[in-house]
Amino acid sequence: MIILNFKTYPKATGEGAVSLASICQEVALETGVKIAIALQPTDIFRVAQQIKIPIFAQHCDPASPGRHTGAVTALALKKAGASGVFLNHSEHNFFSFADLGFSIDLAKEQELETLVFVKDTKIALKADQFKPTYMALEEPSLISGGQAMVQLPENHELIREFIGLIKATPLIGAGIKTREDVFNSLKLGIKGVVLSSGFVKAENPKQVLQSLCSAF
């Protein structure tokens, strides 16, 4: 599985989001690899009208529908066309485990898959009690960096421990950019990868994604 986080890059906003999502759908059909995309809330409905691969929202607030002006609710995301949500990404994390758990519950009520991001096994173990669908291990300092977390041998034992601790499907992010990054992640037992700038900012995004998929 490959999940591509469009973040808030101009190239991945508005019609740009549609164009990149179309590439993702084409490559998914060509390769048979499951590819999902994570969009800004304002782009979900637009893209969902034209694209059938899974769409994750980049965040969901711990707020039930009602008097919560400005909140992004699970209900609104579902109705917009999302099939899943990111939770606790290092760029938009939760202040408490209670809020995280509540957001997961709200997402489940709407039959949305949940992907929780964690930076270490301590947080992973606590987050796993809420039974998210997926969990991604990411060292925040390596996000969009020159090296992937999986490239560093000193992280391999941590990755194996992470996989063994959780019941959620284990994913990895933090600097994934190449076919080798994906291959080495899968070799360690990871089931999929999450990346952003390596795809979104590439001169030829389709070529990059085809290369990543060839690792499966």
Model description:
- With 216 residues, the chain is an alpha/beta fold.
- Helix content is 40%, strand content 16%.
- The chain has an eight-stranded parallel beta barrel, surrounded by seven helices.
- Helix 1 (15-31) links the parallel strand 1 (2-5) and strand 2.
- Helix 1 (15-31) packs parallel to helix 9 (205-213).
Q: Secondary-structure element sequence?
A: EHEHEHEHEHEHEHEHH
- Helical residue percent? 25-40%
Strand content: 15-25%
Number of helices: 9
How many strand segments?
8
Number of domains as seen in the coordinates: 1
Gap between N and C termini: 9 Å
What is the structural class? alpha/beta
Question: Class in CATH?
Answer: Alpha Beta
Low-confidence stretches: none
From the structure above, extract its key features.
alpha/beta, TIM Barrel, 8-stranded parallel beta barrel, 9 helices, globular
Short synopsis of the structure:
It is built from 9 helices and 8 strands. With 216 residues, it is of the alpha/beta class. It has one domain (2-213): TIM Barrel (Alpha-Beta Barrel), CATH 3.20.20.70.
Task: Describe the SSE topology.
Layout: E1 2-5, H1 15-31, E2 35-39, H2 41-48, E3 55-57, H3 74-80, E4 84-87, H4 97-109, E5 113-118, H5 121-128, E6 134-137, H6 156-165, E7 169-172, H7 179-188, E8 192-195, H8 197-200, H9 205-213
Parallel strand pairs: 1-2, 1-8, 2-3, 3-4, 4-5, 5-6, 6-7, 7-8
